[in-house]
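Predicting holo structure, nicotinamide-adenine-dinucleotide bound.
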Amino acid sequence: MCSSDLRERASERSMMSKVLMVLALSEALLAPQRLTHSARRATRASAVTMSASKKILVLGGDGFCGWPTALHLSDKGHDVTIVDNLSRRNIDTELGCDSLTPITHPEERLEAWKELTGKTIKFENIDVAAEYDKLEQLICGVQPDSIVHFAEQRAAPYSQKGPKQKRYTVDNNVCGTHNLLTAVVEADCNAHIVHLGTMGVYGYGTSGGEIPEGYIDVILPGGRESKILHPAYPGSVYHSTKCLDAILFQFYNKNDGVRITDLHQGIVWGTATPQTVKDERLVNRFDYDSDYGTVLNRFLMQSAMGIPLTIYGTGGQTRGFIHVSDTAKCLQLALENPPKAGEQVHILNQIAQTVRVRDLAEMVKKQTGCEVQYITNPRQESAENELDVQNQKFRNLGLNPILLDEALFTEVRDVTTKYKSRCIKEKILPTSFWNKKRTAANEDGP
Ligand code: NAD
Ligand code: USQ
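Done. Tokens:
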């Protein structure tokens, strides 16, 4: 089908949804107790656009990105409910590790937030992947306007650790996403779902050009024009689950009209946001271990500990980065700009800038005078890659992202210095290897 036909179809769908809305509203006025499913969903959609304060579920709201986002949204006056099964805290126990910062129990965190701001954030302990009925009941009862979906196992090294972790990552992430989609449909809920995807779905070979935001225009065999999802090229079991999520989003969007935004986020760095610094009890988690710690936070931690920075391979890997406070801002922007009824899944690249790993290490070294070490790469990945990424959509929505900045490095170093007595040094060197070849190479030493 050519793209003009596609556009016509989209505008027909949009017209149909407007007609449905009018029918739904008149039906509601005449006999509110006898609304059909689709009419109920459409009526709720109109109610959403009329109210500035939204009811928002934050799945995974106890995590590194979820906690500051939940606080940010509550601060903006939204009615926030966190849904989390605390699996991340349990994985810390499994790995014999802990957040560098002493995070308090969810109840204590939420009480502190209420005490400081007068605002209530509710908490539901639900396993999104395993407790479908509870999830559907919650969505049915709350009828949220938006659902932010952070609730996945997010560490690539953990997902490559062994068969148990590989299977857990797929079961947890894919079932969780599917449960959410089907629960929204079954609950007749018109919520806009905003999912945290990853830049890693595109792959990190040299792209040969700028990576677009989610879709590419192609000419199919026979000369037909089409807009398709960018080919998936994941680099770990974890990244593969995000590609599978994208297919589920495409299907539920097409089949059930679910409105979805998928944010392809880069590596998040930093730890503090304007809300988390209000009180020690609100402190955000900070991962530095070789499974969950991400590269820049690990480097800043290592420099505080006087440990040479662990550059994997040549350090020629180029990646996208974003500061944690911009994660929360991006979520707000995505929630404020939902897809219209009938629109295809929105996909935005959520990064501020791209940097090569060895250049990142140099930046930290220049500031702190620390040493660097090149160690055998535990990962199966390109040794060197270029990365050119479109990120215009968020910029057009008004995002002016924080760039890697010495002042902020200092802020993170203050945190790492403050809590460095909590660091377990044995957790710094890699213990998860991508395949048997990488395991053997690491056994041979650097
Ligand atoms: P995190 O592990 O700190 O937080 C995830 C939260 O989800 C945890 O609190 C965990 O307990 C919860 N959770 C996991 N499975 C669940 C389930 N089945 N039911 C209920 N709760 C569950 O991870 P994060 O760094 O905050 O990442 C959040 C999301 O953002 C992830 O989906 C991740 O893929 C994405 N992301 C993160 C980064 C990053 O650098 N941290 C970068 C790009 C994308
Ligand atoms: N690296 C080092 N030294 C280290 C740690 C990492 O050289 O001590 C290298 C890795 O080999 C890799 C790069 O730094 O090339 C990035 O690794 P990372 O652990 O910081 O990030 P990654 O595994 O890609 O995963 C993180 C998040 C994940 C998110 C992803 C976004 O954990 O949830 O999806 O960043 S992205 O990388 O853009 O796909």
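The chain is about 45% helix and 15% strand.
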